[in-house]
Structure formats: structure tokens, C-alpha cells
Amino acid sequence: MSVSNSDNWITAVMALRNARQVVVFSGAGVSAQSGIPTFRDEDGFWKRFPPEQFANWRGLLQMAATNPHRVAEFVYNVISPIAAAKPNEAHLAITRMEQYVSATVVTQNIDRLHQLAGSTRVLEVHGSLFDIQDVSTGKKIRQFQHQDLAAVAALLKEYMDMQRSILSLLNSLRQFYSFDLNINYRPDIVLFGDDLPEPTWSDACRSAEQCDVLLSVGTSGAVYPAAMIPEYASAAGATIINIDPQPCDGYWLQGTAGEMVPRLVKAAWESDQNGDE
Ligand code: NAD
């Protein structure tokens, strides 16, 4: 650990020890070691599937009419790692924080891994792949289990491998996402241009403004308005700690989530040491 990283480490440990309320602000990086790729890293999900075409409902629907195979490929690549993923050491350590401090997780992730790890107060500001929404009313009408998502991924794979026609795919998908002229259900996730869900977003902003420490884990901070959460916390006087392999604002702890979060939780609350490593 470099000198400045070591200084940041001590500040981070002490801030957590003295905190009454902590917000963990998580992004795709917290789930990378669960096998779910991030979107902006080198393997470049967004390079293969440009967001202007794929990260908004209108673009996706237009493409579905002209190139359904490509849309199936995109959806498959998003959902199949999430269907197979299990919480990693970072999710589990974040859950343990609840034993020591009032902790709220504000996540941009749609993978539900914080809840699967056992975190009880999770605000999903970009929704979840596991909730199905009625588009006309905005109401959640169904919750998926992991096996449902895995079954959808398997159907898409059969179509991609030409073992299934588009008609057969659509017919089979109906049991998961009802769609016809009158009913239109879809995953309750936020794509570019969508409003953030309420009251979740307001609750997340309030939590940020009330916390003493905001621990950001595995997010590039490039997606707005979600990236305003650390800004709100900082403006209200919170200490900002950032765990990420890439340089970040605040007290940056360089490393992966799976390595750094358990070490930080241990040093702050589960060890008698003074936090210096
Ligand atoms: P991002 O792809 O923009 O940034 C990922 C960040 O994670 C980068 O800063 C990267 O350096 C860091 N990172 C990579 N591996 C890491 C590791 N092992 N430990 C810690 N950090 C690591 O992701 P974002 O900021 O979350 O924004 C992308 C949007 O796409 C968000 O809405 C996000 O929810 C969504 N997304 C979600 C998932 C998921 O649900 N798991 C996966 C991909 C993208």
C-alpha cells in the first residue's frame, strides 16, 4: 500500500468507526467478482452494444423489429451472468456492517445481490431485473426468482443457436413477460432517459444527506443522476471513501471490492488494531 493510500486507509477506518449512519453506494464493480461484467471496463460491453442503441427502450424496440437476433444477444449477455451470480465477499461484508452501524445500501445494480447477501435496507435506484412492471400503471406485478431468469436466458440461447424460431421464442417468453395488445410487462429497470423510481430515489437522496460516511464501491460515477448521491453526501459534510481499482474522488482505497471491503469492515469494527495496515 502506498503512503497516500495508507493515509487514506487510516482516515477511512476511523471515519467508519466513528460513524452513526453509513451509506454504501455501489455500482457494477461490486458484482464484478461475482462474474457479472461491468459496462465500461476494458472488455467493453458498451463497445459491443453501443448504449445509444441498446440502453434505451425506444432503441431496443426499434431494433427488435429489424434485428431481433441482435437484441436477443444483448439481453442474453445482460441476464445470463446475473441469473448465475452469487454474492461475493464484498456483498457479504457490506451486509455485516449492519451489525455495527446504521447502514443503507444505495445501489445502481440490477442484480439483487445485496439482498441475496442479506442486506436489509437496499435502495435500488436503477430498479431490478427481478421485478416485472406493468408499463401502463408502473406497478410491480411479479417477482422473478433466479431460476426464472435462468429459464429466460436458456430460451434466448436456443433462439441465438437457431434451435428455436422467433415465434416460438416470443410464445415461450409470454409466461414470464406477458405482452400482447392490451398487456405490456417488462423488467422494472431504468434505462437512459427513464425517470428514477420513486420514492426510492428521494429516500436515497435523503440517506446521502444524513450519513456521516459514504462508502462508494465499484462505480465510475459516470451515470447521472445516480452519481449525485456522493455529491449530496459530500455537500452535507460526509466523509467520502471510494473503493475501486481506478482513481476516484474522496479517500480512494485502490483495490477490488472483494479484497478491500472485507478488510475495511474488519479493520473498522472487527479488530482491536488501530486500523493502520
Ligand atoms: P461502470 O461500468 O461505469 O463502472 C464500473 C466501476 O467498477 C469502474 O470504476 C471500475 O474501475 C470498477 N471495478 C471494476 N472491477 C472492480 C472490482 N472487482 N472491484 C471494485 N471495483 C471494480 O459501472 P457503474 O458506475 O455501476 O455504472 C454502469 C450502469 O450499468 C449502472 O447503472 C449499473 O447499475 C449498470 N450495470 C449493472 C450491473 C449489475 O447489476 N451487476 C452490471 C453492469 C452494469
Characterization of this structure:
- The protein contains 12 helices and 9 strands.
- The protein is α/β, with parallel strands linked by helices.
- It has 2 domains: 157 residues, 3-Layer(aba) Sandwich (Rossmann fold), CATH 3.40.50.1220; 85 residues, no CATH class.
- The strands form 2 sheets. The protein has a 6-stranded parallel sheet, with helices on both faces. It has a 3-stranded antiparallel sheet with strand order 5-4-6, with no helix packed on it.
- β4 and β5 form a beta hairpin.
- α1 crosses α12, α5 runs antiparallel to α8 and α8 runs antiparallel to α9.
- The protein is elongated and about 60 Å long.
- Bound molecules: nicotinamide-adenine-dinucleotide.
